[in-house]
Design goal:
It is built from 18 helices and 3 strands. By secondary structure, the chain is mostly helical.
Length: 476
């Protein structure tokens, strides 16, 4: 009996431990972003295979391709010596479908983020987090069994719904449990390291597994990994964190706050560089450099390493030196590196600019994500579902417009010109970070600004009540 009581007491301590909570959110974000990125290097080749039946003529080492359309089948006899040669000559035609597929996840998030944020405000953070990982498993199984573009599109869209639940609830629970601004910056940086590590693993994991074992085994392995994370969530995440404040700021009232608008705008603009690279870079590499398939995923590793360093180490640094200055410099770095990518003539030439882009985005996120929680604390009510839904809307907007618009623009102006344009956009936006200067460092409560009485009902009474509580605490 005593051993059972000790075991129950130990499990109860683990369930109430904030350290375990942070670890599980870290791994939830990790598997979400692995699934996000592992599809990037494999999807151009797989979609091309879905659209074409390619056979090899062994007598003369030539290929013939059977193009499948909705109304007819066209036989196109070619003189290409190998499949890689054939792919390199024709892959540029797949920009449109690749862009639509990659953007579908972000478009789903764009639609559901406000709804998920409102649900989290009312029912807490843990249940949506577990629900999100279960949805990821469904997405993996659908990916594994899909043999048409429509099923791939459905699987990617379902992933968007699960990702929305995980990202908003994960950031929200960290913001609520760590109210001290400096500590919040540190823990959020560590937690966002899960995003970086997932991205770091996802690209090479996807390309290597696809090249050696195929699509089905890749996604079944991913489903098993996510199932393991879900089991640990169900066992250890029992406490359903929820704000004690009954009222909360609406999505619209947060959006019209100028400082919050500038902050989420910076997140969107910095993310846009990566949202363009993911669908367009593999196709550009196949067309210009024709690297082996497994290298298409490895080329994104410097981005992931840069993001990992930026999120893990620059949270406290941005708090110390000013989040506005850190964000401004990081946007400039992203812009400068994006403009240098088209000059590469070999895969190794991409290492430094890719690292710079990942570092810049990571530093921007490490500075701006905690800032959003701080702005809500100082200017609204400390309930974080809506503000992180807004942050995810900005990321989703970048990841939806990037593949959709970028895949069309790359056909019109070319990949090099498009990357220079995205780089210039980041550089031009960076000075706007000066508008969040006053809010990016600790301020006194008498400097707080109110957006309006509509933003927080009975806000004056809310302030007076809190001031009274602090006075009683000081007397005690």
């Amino acid at each position: 009996m005593e051993e059972n009581e000790r075991l129950c007491s130990f499990l109860l301590k683990i369930q109430n431990s904030t350290g375990v909570m942070v670890i599980l959110i870290y791994f939830s974000l990790l598997v979400d972003n692995m699934l996000l990125t592992l599809i990037v290097p494999i999807i151009p080749d797989y979609i091309y295979q879905l659209e074409n039946i390619i056979n090899e003529n062994e007598s003369n080492d030539h290929l013939w391709i059977q193009n499948i359309t909705e109304n007819s089948t066209v036989y196109n006899y070619t003189n290409y010596r190998s499949y890689d040669d054939l792919l390199r000559k024709n892959i540029n035609k797949e920009n449109g479908l690749v862009g639509i597929l990659l953007a579908s996840k972000a478009l789903t998030q764009l639609v559901f983020n406000p709804l998920i944020g409102a649900i989290i405000n009312r029912m807490g953070y843990i249940y949506p987090l577990v629900t999100g990982t279960i949805i990821l498993i469904i997405s993996c199984l659908l990916f594994a069994s899909s043999d048409t573009f429509f099923l791939l599109l459905m699987a990617r869209s379902i992933h968007g719904l699960g990702s929305s639940c995980i990202s908003i609830s994960g950031m929200g629970v960290i913001a609520e449990k760590y109210q001290e601004d400096k500590e919040r910056s540190r823990i959020m940086g560590i937690t966002m390291g899960g995003i970086a590590f997932g991205v770091l693993i996802g690209y090479p994991f996807g390309s290597i597994m696809y090249d050696f074992v195929g699509k089905t085994a890749l996604f079944l392995t991913m489903a098993a990994l996510i199932l393991l994370v879900t089991v640990f969530q169900v066992i250890f995440l029992r406490q359903n964190f929820r704000s004690e404040v009954s009222s909360h700021s609406t999505f619209f009232n947060l959006l019209i706050d100028p400082q919050i608008a500038v902050t989420v705008g910076a997140i969107c603009i910095s993310t846009s560089a990566m949202s363009i690279l993911e669908p367009c870079l593999p196709i550009w590499l196949i067309e210009v450099m024709s690297p082996p398939k497994w290298q298409l995923g490895l080329v994104f590793i410097p981005d992931s390493l840069g993001y990992l360093i930026g999120t893990n180490f620059f949270g406290p640094i941005s708090f110390k030196f000013g989040r506005w200055l850190t964000a401004m410099l990081s946007l400039f770095l992203v812009g400068a590196c994006a403009m240098t990518i088209p000059f590469a003539v070999h895969v190794t030439h991409l290492l430094l600019p890719h690292f710079g882009i990942g570092l810049g985005i990571g530093v921007a996120d490490a500075a701006l994500m905690p800032l959003l929680a701080s702005l809500v604390d100082k200017r609204h009510v400390s309930v974080y579902g809506s503000v992180y839904a807004l942050a995810q809307v900005s990321v989703s907007l970048a990841y939806s417009l990037g593949p959709l618009v970028g895949s069309q623009l790359v056909n019109l102006m070319g990949f090099p010109t498009l990357m220079r344009f995205i780089g210039l956009l980041n550089i031009l936006y960076s000075p706007l970070c000066c508008l969040i200067k006053d809010s990016s460092s600790p301020v006194q409560e008498n400097k707080m600004m109110l957006i309006g009485s509509a933003a927080v009902p009975n806000y004056r009474a809310f302030l007076e009540e809190n001031q009274y509580k602090r006075f009683i605490d000081d007397v005690d």
